Amino acid sequence: MKPFNPEPNPGLSFSSFRKISENGFGDRNNSYAYSMVWFKDHLYVGTGRATLCFLKPHVPLNVNIWPVECPYTVYSKEFEYTQARGEIWRYSPVTAHWERVYQSPMVTDSQGAEFSRDFGYRAMTVFQGKSDSEPALYVATCARSRSSGTIILRSEDGINFFPISKPGLIGLPITSLRSLFPFKGKLYTTPAGATRGNQNTAGIPIIYETSDPVQEEWQAVNEPGFGDFDNKTIYELIDFGNYLYVGTFNNNGFQIWRTDAQGEPPYHWTKVITRGANRGSLNQGTVSMLVFKDALYVGTGIQNGGYDHRNKIGPAGAEIIRIAHDGSWEIIVGDERDGKFPLSGLPAGFGSISNGYIWRMGVHDGWLYAGTMNWSIILRFNRLKGQSQKLNWLLEQVGIENLIKNQGGFDLWRSFDGENWLPVSRQGFGNSYNYGLRNIVSTPHGLFIGTANPFGPRAAIQVNEQWTYEDNPNGGLEIWQSS
């Protein structure tokens, strides 16, 4: 007799969630829920600060006006103290209480100028190394360009945080790490950011490991870029079938490699996927990776929200690719090619070109959840001249404000089997300024969602055909919790 298979639980809908924090914990400069993790019965959130003001000197947006007011120059005293200091917050679901447990310290450079050491905290994980008597919280910093580089913080109690690594991770010229991932008793990380607006491409496509972040040095475990110069960065890491899988950032299309991490590094690596699963540059990077029901799901994207102006890639919607243990792959959400059809019946971007990333995926109560980055709100500020013909045609047919009204804000979708998908929200949980779902964390107290919302404290609006800046009551990151 076959075992009884009960009907799946109904999963979460938008009405299942309630907002437990808004406006960046009361400071709309907290624009990204950059990292989130469950540790010692609390939800921890590392913020990214004043994102659009940091990007303004480096990202060539074709806009009539910069989307947010940036009243201070970077490295001015006012900017350093009011906008640049990254924060770590924690939440107790039992008491429904938030508290800030860490704020970036101020440091000085060789000329005595004072500045914030960290503008954000991009990666968090819970790991027990050789020097840890119990699992500890490890946090990777996003360093300032004039600093000595990114460092790693450690906390045993979730309240007191101490730096444990040399700046730059063994002295490398990097500003951020995108991942901290435990695998077979070791902690792995990858450099992901450098100065001059290269927040995604450090130019050091190397994976590092250590079994003891407190006492031991980090060591490289792969040949740079796996021998391919076009692999600019190692972007994501995941454990699947006793292998460590990693995805790259590559303007010709991402690659996925795997290793069993046996023996002495550098390990033996096998290529699993190349050329962005044969989509080429439109699958520039592996933005998210997650194991669900004995398969590996990969969310793709093009940097800068789905339109890489610098490398002239996109715009294009993101895909979800599913990989089996034998390395074979299928298109779940995406474009038909090579005789393969999207098994969900949904085209790239869940049918929207403005869903430029599958930014985060999560599993909760037997359901797979996938959240996007949606750049529709940026169109409000764009100068149409110079945009792609495809995008201009869309805007002429629909209208910018109609597009924002109907699909502004991130998408969140769910699937019980990985192939049939249902929308949870297609409008940023009711806030079009929530242009990204940045993190998803499953806990004993429900599913938590952290957004990316850099449109504060003051955003640009057009009144009588004149642009001005006004306070934005919908700006700043938000945190939502399911019931």
Global geometry: globular
What is the strand content? 35-45%
Number of helices, counting only DSSP H or I runs of 4 residues or more: 7
Helix content: under 10%
Sheet with the most strands, sense and barrel status:
4 strands, antiparallel
Q: Give the integer mean of the pLDDT values.
A: 92
Beginning-to-end CA distance, first to last residue: 36 Å
Number of strands: 32
Structural class: mainly beta
Low-confidence stretches: none
CA-atom Rg in angstroms: 21 Å
The assembly state of the depicted protein chains is single chain
Strand order of the largest sheet: 1-32-29-28
What does this structure look like?
The protein is mainly beta and 483 residues long. It is 8% helix and 40% strand. It contains 7 helices and 32 strands. It has helices at residues 51-55, 77-82, 168-171, 275-278, 303-306, 389-398, 400-407, and strands at residues 17-21, 30-39, 42-49, 87-92, 97-103, 106-108, 114-116, 118-127, 136-143, 152-155, 162-163, 176-183, 186-193, 208-210, 219-220, 231-240, 243-250, 256-259, 270-273, 285-292, 295-301, 320-323, 329-333, 355-364, 367-374, 412-415, 421-425, 436-443, 446-452, 458-463, 466-471, 479-482. It is globular, with a radius of gyration of 21 Å. The relative contact order is 0.14.
